[in-house]
Design brief:
Trna Endonuclease, Chain: A, domain 1, 5-stranded mixed beta sheet, globular, alpha+beta
Length: 407
């Protein structure tokens, strides 16, 4: 319940109801939500309407806005939608609705796959202690995994993805108001959520997409950032927070080059004397991958950087140090660039190839990287002399007995 902002304690009671009928809409058969959740904590009661879609059935703005009106007129706190569609975070609904409608009731969205993943992690990490609840949860997971349940994974980008890819590939200018642009960005945002879910299943812990606070608060700001990147620079990107990983995992889809790049960035060690020593510190962590398509990028201040294949960096660390540079690099990046060529514009193949590449990168690179940690300070082995005591006015009261006696 934390994801919808409702604190739940051991004393809280949660009640669930299905096929809810409200007084004002009892004769309207179309306006009948799938469920209602009621959370009671002390004297406080929080309620939410639930609306679910399965299979190819999609949510519509008209139905969502109608249920928001029902929530407002009945004092319900929130509307939660569930479908095979994805949202970057629960407050970013995949369907655009009027901002006026969500002023009186909160709106949240979850994909079925995200719910299935959360349930799986609860069981895998043995968070559910009650045996009966564990059995029910296990049965629920099995139901969601059955193809007949209507729950499906994200398996293709929208039509706009292919159209925008073709437009950029032909060297034509992208129009910001082109419906294909909105569809491509929507596909990317949903796919980013799917990647975070896939990584969660892969590592057995929740993985979240990292976005700035301003983008988190307002979905329109999140969209505008993607819109600017796509129309001006012809790329879309996303970052993922993986528990205990050395850094965030950064994924970029470059429409111009039809490539994807996956990278992780580490702060350079500060206790080395020479820049090549910093590079050796990193390359030793992944030296067994010298035959792979892995590259190392060294970044200095003033925007200076150098990039080489891992095999070259292992053989000659100085090849990553630009001429005239004597200071240590600020950061060191491990990068894999994959040319998808024609697969980039394919709605299905892009998802298949990129998902496989991200999981493979984390397995062979990400889980083996370690951030630099400063060594603990050592105690200076120096006993103050009588001259030091007199010149620095050291109070004998604070000195060891052996030194007090000499004074």
């Amino acid at each position: 319940m934390n994801e919808v902002g409702v604190p739940v304690s051991k004393r809280s009671t949660i009640s669930c109801y299905t096929e809810v009928v409200f007084k004002d809409n009892r004769n309207d058969k179309k306006c009948r939500p799938d469920g209602l959740i009621m959370v009671k904590s002390g004297n406080k009661i929080w309620t939410a309407i639930i609306e679910c879609k399965v299979g190819n059935n999609s949510l519509t703005s008209e139905q969502i806005e109608e249920y928001l009106d029902v929530a407002k007129s009945n004092g319900v706190n929130a509307l939660i939608t569930i479908s095979n569609q994805y949202a970057t975070i629960p407050t970013h609904n995949p369907i655009q609705v009027s901002k006026q409608k969500i002023k009186s009731a909160d709106l949240f969205h979850f994909s079925w796959l995200s719910i299935e993943t959360k349930a799986t992690l609860l069981l895998k990490n043995k968070i559910v202690n009650d045996p009966e609840q564990a059995i029910i949860l296990s049965e629920f997971i099995q139901y969601l995994k059955d193809p007949r349940s209507g729950v499906s994974s994200f398996n293709q980008m929208g039509k706009g993805w292919k159209e925008i890819s073709l437009t950029i590939n032909k060297g034509l200018k992208i129009k910001r108001n082109d419906p294909n642009v909105e569809d491509a960005i929507s596909s990317w945002q949903q796919y980013s959520k799917f990647i975070s879910i896939s990584l969660s299943e892969f590592v057995g812990q929740p993985v979240y997409e990292y976005i700035s606070r301003s983008r988190t608060k307002d979905p329109s700001v999140n969209f505008q950032v993607n819109l600017q990147d796509l129309t001006n620079e012809h790329y879309l990107d996303a970052e993922f927070e993986i528990p205990n990983a050395a850094s965030r995992l950064h994924l970029t889809a470059d429409f111009s080059r039809r490539t994807i790049s996956i990278e992780m960035s580490l702060s350079s060690p500060k206790d080395r004397k020479y820049p090549q020593a910093c590079i050796n510190w990193l390359t030793r962590q992944i030296s067994e991958l010298k035959g792979e398509n892995i590259e190392i990028r060294a970044n200095w201040s003033r925007g200076v950087s150098e990039m080489k294949k891992l095999s070259e960096a292992l053989e000659d660390p100085l090849s990553l140090v630009p001429k005239g540079i004597k200071d240590l690099p600020k950061t060191l990046d491990v990068v894999e660039i994959i040319d998808l060529a024609g697969k980039f514009g394919s709605s299905k193949l892009f998802v298949e190839e990129t998902t496989k590449a991200v999981l493979n990168f984390y397995q062979k690179v990400g889980q083996n990287l370690r951030q630099w940690i400063p060594k603990p300070l050592k105690v200076k082995d120096k006993t103050p002399s009588q001259k030091d005591i007199k010149s620095q006015n050291i109070n004998p009261f604070w000195l060891p007995p052996s030194i007090k006696e000499n004074n």
